Backbone:
């Protein structure tokens, strides 16, 4: 009986083992079995063969391993899971999770449910391990959803494609950075201040299309570097503390190309929208959006009665342009949001070096006013956002140096023949 059980355990699944390569039959159960059997040391590659497969559950990865398609375009997975992420990847203390060469297509409507996309990424902060996602396609098709949800800083993406085929003019696609546990009240980690390369998440050399209501969303405690991406009818947005528990901490958006189909068929309002935190937006090529704006700066909490008390005086809690400093004892907000602690300081949003027809539009940088005024205090955005104090146009951020490009993990884990030669970096060092 013991011998029979051993034989059954060895043959219960279809995956085959050749050295450190575990080749599956492509079913979700078989891929899960292979991931479960792999040692937690980063040595194993779990392969999904070429073909089209339908998955209805959640593949859970908690070990350091590689999950890859058999070829660059041949492994296609239809996501028929409407209630939870199709893949949940949580990096191990023993190494990275490396995901590449998968094409995932949304085939059921998840109703825009939070965390019910195609991939959810987690890691413990701080640690030396993360989730790497590259050379994949995530197609949300006609459904209103983010393809990827990121729940930690320090997750790295490159050479991924988010086409949102068949999307309407209210679609979201791409990546949401949401519900991140790290502290807002810690020093900023701009550029080379990210000494580990994992204090911020990085998205580089990716393509996004048809994300009129956000192709990227930066919210609670997120710190994201968005660079060298192509945005076709797709915009980037943030959530501040107006509707989020903590709000976005900081973002860097540079050397991207923002293109729009003639006539703005997706009804985009802008290319980049701030609703909180600080940031830099520079060296992007931006096509003009007729009768709209390029970069919109907002403070919703003065007119929107939601997750924090209506703000009645400057500065509003964690508003656009605000950050944190250990030398500050100031609380956040007027009235004070007690749970935010102290350390409030103005860091600013710096906008410079962008090119394209949008930059000559009178509405290139605009201040947005939430409507209707739920708070009833009649507060105006011009009281809370002033150029030269909270935001700067045409001025580089002092002492700012972009982080090394490509990201070192992009270089180390690049698939031979799959990663394009990166374009030359611009403004490697900007010091004032």
Residues:
């Amino acid at each position: 009986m013991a011998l029979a059980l051993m034989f059954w355990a060895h043959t219960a699944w279809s995956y085959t083992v050749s050295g450190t390569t575990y080749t599956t039959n492509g079913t979700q159960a078989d891929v899960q079995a292979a991931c479960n059997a792999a040692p937690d040391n980063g040595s194993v590659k779990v392969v999904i063969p070429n073909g089209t497969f339908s998955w209805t559950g959640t593949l859970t990865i908690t070990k350091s391993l590689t999950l890859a398609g058999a070829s660059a375009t041949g492994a296609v997975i239809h996501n028929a899971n409407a209630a939870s992420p199709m893949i949940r990847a949580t990096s191990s203390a023993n190494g990275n999770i490396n995901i590449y060469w998968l094409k995932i297509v949304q085939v059921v409507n998840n109703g825009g449910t939070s965390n019910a996309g195609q991939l959810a990424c987690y890691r413990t902060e701080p640690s030396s391990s993360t989730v790497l996602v590259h050379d994949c396609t995530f197609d949300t098709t006609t459904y209103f959803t983010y393809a990827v949800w990121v729940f930690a800083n320090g997750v790295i993406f490159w050479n991924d494609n988010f086409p949102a085929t068949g999307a309407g003019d209210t679609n979201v696609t791409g990546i949401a950075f949401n519900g991140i546990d790290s502290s807002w009240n810690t020093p900023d980690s701009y550029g080379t201040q990210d000494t580990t390369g994992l204090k911020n998440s990085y998205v580089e050399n990716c393509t996004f299309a048809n994300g009129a209501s956000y192709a990227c969303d930066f919210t609670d405690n997120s710190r994201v570097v968005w660079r060298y991406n192509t945005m076709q009818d797709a915009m980037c947005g943030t959530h501040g503390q107006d509707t989020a528990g903590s709000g976005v901490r900081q973002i860097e958006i540079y050397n991207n190309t923002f293109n729009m189909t003639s006539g703005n068929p997706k009804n985009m309002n802008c290319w980049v929208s701030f609703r909180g935190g600080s940031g830099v937006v520079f060296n992007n090529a931006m096509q003009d959006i007729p009768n709209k704006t390029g970069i919109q700066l907002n403070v919703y909490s003065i007119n929107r009665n939601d997750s924090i008390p209506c703000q009645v005086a400057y500065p509003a809690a964690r508003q656009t342009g605000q950050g944190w400093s250990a030398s500050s004892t100031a609380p956040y907000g007027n009235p004070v949001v007690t749970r935010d602690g102290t350390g409030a300081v103005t860091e600013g949003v710096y906008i410079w070096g962008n090119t394209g027809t949008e930059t000559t539009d009178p509405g290139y940088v605009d201040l947005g006013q939430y409507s209707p005024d739920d708070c009833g205090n009649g507060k105006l955005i011009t009281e809370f956002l002033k150029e030269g104090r909270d935001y700067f146009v045409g001025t580089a951020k002092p002492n700012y140096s972009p982080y090394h490009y490509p990201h070192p993990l992009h270089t180390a884990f690049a698939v031979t023949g799959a990663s394009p030669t990166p374009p030359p970096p611009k403004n490697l060092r900007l010091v004032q």
Observations:
- Residues 1-10, 419-432 have pLDDT under 50 and may be disordered.
